[in-house]
Design goal:
One of its GO terms (molecular function) is DNA binding. By secondary structure, the chain is mainly alpha-helical. The protein contains 3 helices and 2 strands. Helices cover 75% and strands 4% of the residues. 1% of the residues are buried.
Length: 97
C-alpha cells in the first residue's frame, strides 16, 4: 500500500506524503476496516484528481457503511448466542442445586 523512494545507498526514503499515507492506513486499520477494502480504495482516494475524489469518497463511505452494517449484524448474532449461553448456564446451575 506504500512504496517508499530509495536513496542511492539503498536506504528507504519516506517523504511526507508517504508518512501521511501510512497515518491514514493506520487510522483505517485501527477503526477495524479490512486490509482488502483499504487496499482496494486507498489509491483512488489519494490520487489527487478532484473530479474523481468525490465519487470515490462516496463509494468508499458506502463500502465503510456496508462493512459497519455487516459488523453490527455479527455483533447482534454474537450477543444472541451469548444470551442463550447465559440462559443455559443459569438453568444448569438452578437444576444442580
Amino acid at each position: 500500500m506504500i512504496v517508499p523512494g530509495r536513496f542511492s545507498n539503498g536506504f528507504r526514503d519516506y517523504c511526507q506524503s508517504t508518512i501521511d499515507r501510512v497515518l491514514v492506513i493506520r487510522s483505517l486499520l485501527e477503526s477495524g476496516l479490512p486490509v482488502r477494502l483499504i487496499r482496494e480504495l486507498l489509491p483512488r482516494l489519494t490520487d489527487g484528481s478532484d473530479a474523481r475524489t468525490d465519487a470515490v469518497c462516496a463509494e468508499f463511505l458506502h463500502e465503510v457503511q456496508n462493512y459497519r452494517d455487516r459488523l453490527a449484524a455479527r455483533i447482534a448474532a454474537l450477543s444472541d448466542q451469548q444470551a442463550a449461553l447465559d440462559a443455559y448456564l443459569r438453568e444448569v446451575r438452578r437444576t444442580d442445586l
